[in-house]
Amino acid sequence: MRELLERKPSATLALLIRDTATQSAQQRADAFIPLAERSRVKVFAGDVSQPNCGLDSAAYDRLLAETTRVIHSAATVRFDHTLDEARRTNVEGTRHILDFAGGAHQLRSFAYVGTAYVAGERSGLVREDELVVGQSYRNTYEQTKAEAEALVQSRLASIPGMILRPSIIVGDSKTGVTSSFKMMYWPLKIYARRLWRTVPGYSDAVLDIVPVDFVARSVVQLLFDEAALGCTVHLCAGPLASATIQQVAHRAMEYFNGPEPRFIDPKIFFALVRPLLFLSLWGRKRRVLRDGSAYRDYFTMRMQFDTSNAERLLRPAGVSPPPVLDYLDHLFHYCVASDWGRKSISTQ
């Protein structure tokens, strides 16, 4: 949103945001909309999983008449939802947004923000023009995002759109700022706090992460690029800028002055070591064993994401992902300074 406001000073943005039990959509939006820009940002309380995105007919018709570009990034990113729960937001929500886009007569571009992990349990190089190649999926998130992407592909003949696939999104590459401390942040936290040093994974497993500032710049750049219409683009570090788990672990050891991380074959760990530890450990370390199982598959990946379309479309505009190892210290510093999100800090 901030990228759009800065690059398009005459644009007005419409944000579709859910109410929560404690805050209205407007209150939630006010927390991140710059005060000077609030006249340019219109907030609509809605929910993509509902018919007409949960909007009343007047608001829906108004947006149909006025909208020229759509960015669809609403999704549930939880791994533990049932298939029906995940489909309600990720697939049916996408269907409702596509229906809206199809009825917006002034629409010039539609950007669907998916995930590179629609690749599921593949290995080797994953190309941007590939979706379903017989792979299985690690969780309902990956499966339903693949189903949603297939739905988008089926509509691209009638809607001027594109599919954008980021990998794991982390904090800003310059400031380290993040609003979420999930995914790679959780194992980093337990390591930094000396709760765990054993990695049930392969030292050469690939960690493809991208900073949020790169993703935001890329989405906005491609949204206004006619050459991107009809394309699928990996917003990933790719073979040139990604890192291995061992490289990231070594950098974390240096930064946090921690013990040498130990790698163990995940099949042995989960079949034999973890059950025995679960019987003998209590308290925080037992919780680490329990919670860490959600991340097991992401320590074993040996796939790389082809970024040919990304390089062709983004590099001429000066947009490219920084190498992972170049900004890890910025991420670590923000984690420590904010106490892993427990306190606010100024980045100015």
UniProtKB/TrEMBL annotation:
<dbReference type="Pfam" id="PF07993">
    <property type="entry name" value="NAD_binding_4"/>
</dbReference>
<keyword id="KW-0614">Plasmid</keyword>
<dbReference type="GO" id="GO:0080019">
    <property type="term" value="F:alcohol-forming very long-chain fatty acyl-CoA reductase activity"/>
</dbReference>
<dbReference type="GO" id="GO:0035336">
    <property type="term" value="P:long-chain fatty-acyl-CoA metabolic process"/>
</dbReference>
<feature type="domain" description="Thioester reductase (TE)">
    <location>
        <begin position="2"/>
        <end position="218"/>
    </location>
</feature>
<dbReference type="InterPro" id="IPR036291">
    <property type="entry name" value="NAD(P)-bd_dom_sf"/>
</dbReference>
<dbReference type="InterPro" id="IPR026055">
    <property type="entry name" value="FAR"/>
</dbReference>
<protein>
    <submittedName>
        <fullName>Male sterility domain protein</fullName>
    </submittedName>
</protein>
<dbReference type="InterPro" id="IPR013120">
    <property type="entry name" value="FAR_NAD-bd"/>
</dbReference>
